[in-house]
Amino acid sequence: MDFLLLVYAFLIFYPLLVLWRGIDRKRDRECYILDYECYKPTDDRKLDTEFSGKVIMRSKQLGLNEYKFLLKAIVSSGIGEQTYGPRIMFKGQEENPTLQDSVSEVEEFFHDSIEKLLARSGISPREIDVLVVNVSMLSSVPSLAARIINHYKLREDVKVFNLSGMGCSASLISVDIVQNVFKSCKNVYALVVTSESLSPNWYSGNDRSMILANCLFRSGGCAILLTNKRALKHRAMFKLKCLVRTHHGARDESYDCCLQREDEQGRLGFHLGKSLPKAATRALVDNLREITPKILPVRELLRFMVVSFIRKYWSHRSTKGVVSPKPVINFKTGVDHFCIHTGGKAVIDGIGVNLDLTEYDLEPARMTLHRFGNTSASSLWYVLGYMEAKKRLKRGDRVLMMSFGAGFKCNSCLWEVVRDLDADNVWKDCIDSYPPKSLANPFMEKFGWINNEDPSTFVMR
């Protein structure tokens, strides 16, 4: 009789034990952001209108038509006068960079942001278990990750990932790597470092598709501390809900629209093709198609399906050929805030149209583009910082991050705010002045005379 009781007890409690262990193990795989630190270069690296004009005029390859093109581009870019550039530009040596110039630019960011992040979080460098570094346009030997390990004396068994060539979408790729490590390792700290090196990538030729990059990209970076320690979840800022990566590298048109190459004179630069908007839209649509069912409530998905079916049904039945408006998914039913990559004004406008967003939703991205410019993969975290500085982020809110990158890629993820956030960050000195009354920059006022010049008599003033 006792034996039968033991058998019955085993049959009852063993499945419960297996279920509990499965749930418990899943909790150890959660991905939390403990803290992050965006880089703010020193004021002597600010690119105001007057200095930017001097830099452009230093190029001997540009003519009147190129000046007009650049003026139009910068005036409509949405970028203000407070952005930052690499020190090599202030030395007048942007056309002749050295390896040390490139390395020094990223090391200045490393030493500032990583030290501030670790000091504020109370985490020792020796406690870091995973290090992911992404700097797309600079690959050094030893790697940039090795430089961080050497400077901070990380442990010998630290798991290291050094990414290059991933473009503006690299920070979410780094988060994805961390998330996958967390699935197999318990009680782990991970440090993600995301930036770009502009020093070796100034284009000194006159190809319009390549000189455009000189106007759009700015210096910046972010260090992010993540963990899967459940004991620290009360200290966390964000919890990762899901992450989706879309890669269209197999399509030649998408692959060719955004790449590093040499022009006809052999000058290296970053090419932005005319097919870029089309490639970005296609990647965005495919990415949304996959992430939407993961982040929106069932009622919204059902509503969209029903409305789509009715529209399709009546369009076939209609004898007058009248087609009702295309149904739109309401992303706000599952998302409270939209953290959009600051690839440019056109990128922000395009996502706003596709997701049916308001100016309030787009404000963080627009203000980040105006204040810090396109800082490549780190841009998303400046946008997130703006939301935090404006005290928009409350416990339980859901934040959708979206980024694009060369390849061509579109990556997105959803974060849940774990606690109310209102701490000081990179925006603290200027947040009260945002949004400004006007985002217009003074380039047209300063250099508008170029549009009235005659090519046959033009002389640079």
UniProtKB/TrEMBL annotation:
The chain crosses the membrane at residues 6-23. It catalyses: a very-long-chain acyl-CoA + malonyl-CoA + H(+) = a very-long-chain 3-oxoacyl-CoA + CO2 + CoA. The active site is at residues 168, 247, 337, 341, 370, 374. One of its GO terms (cellular component) is membrane. Pfam families: ACP_syn_III_C, FAE1_CUT1_RppA. Its EC number is 2.3.1.-. This is 3-ketoacyl-CoA synthase. The keyword Transmembrane helix applies. Residues 25-312 form the FAE domain. One of its GO terms (biological process) is fatty acid biosynthetic process. Pathway: Lipid metabolism; fatty acid biosynthesis. It comes from Populus trichocarpa (Western balsam poplar). Gene3D superfamilies: 3.40.47.10. SUPFAM superfamilies: Thiolase-like. One of its GO terms (molecular function) is fatty acid elongase activity. Keywords: Acyltransferase, Membrane, Transferase, Transmembrane, Transmembrane helix. Belongs to the thiolase-like superfamily. Chalcone/stilbene synthases family. Residues 335-416 form the Beta-ketoacyl-[acyl-carrier-protein] synthase III C-terminal domain. PANTHER family: 3-KETOACYL-COA SYNTHASE. The keyword DNA repair does not apply.
